[in-house]
Amino acid sequence: METVKLHDGNEMPVLGFGVFQINEPGAAEQAVVDAIETGYQLIDTAQSYNNEEEVGKGIKRASVARDQLFITSKLWVSDTGYEATKKAFEMTLKKLQLDYLDLYLIHQPYGDVYGSWRAMEDLQKEGKLKSIGVSNFENDRLIDLALYNDVTPALNQVEINPFNQQTTSIEYMRDKHVQPEAWAPFAEGKHHIFTNEVLTEIANNHHKSTGQVILRWLTQQGIVALAKSVHQTRMAENLNIFDFKLTPAEMTAISTLDRQESQFFDHRDPAAVERIANLVRPSYNK
Fold this sequence. Notes:
TIM Barrel, 16% strand, 11 helices, 286 residues, two-stranded antiparallel ribbon, alpha/beta
């Protein structure tokens, strides 16, 4: 597995397995077991996914040593703030049955993210967190957090796919030594991405699937990518992307697909901020 080095010196796999929306009883546990057995080392979950406990069971069942895995989780908006973050983090460790996390992210740029960040800095000093970062932070929010704290986020997990390529944001992250990580690399199938003519032609050139081309397009740029599937054959397919390389002409062709807009929602839209706030419920620790 290829890796990238974060600015704090820690290394992480460039391709990982995500468990968002795997919520059927037992499904996330089995998916994690299958993913690890298939060869994934990076497992990405979140407090708001409501499957950390199953992910933890899957990690325990898998026949791979803990130090060979890179486990990520995320803090939800309902628990921002210094003390709330520490409490939520301990609950995450308990549910995952782990002593430490490789990476912990602030999931959304809302609430008391400054208090949360100070708590995460302290948890990192205590050795309970190896790396700390953020998710869905626009460049202004990212640099604001970095400038007013001791530690710059090691990573920013944002939506990146052929229809929302985030070129300017990625360039800015690299300038600030923040690792970009892509969620929804397949745009959840929107706009017929798996049958897109440009992607299909490139896939045929390499005897690969369109999904493999998308993941290779990301990782070839040094962007960490998260892929999700509950089918082990698809897991293996998504992992099998390091035996070919896209040409400069193919990379340029994919760049023409950029719509320069989110395929889901704009995190700066006040209506989106209100919608997420309305989802917040103090139920995580009940």
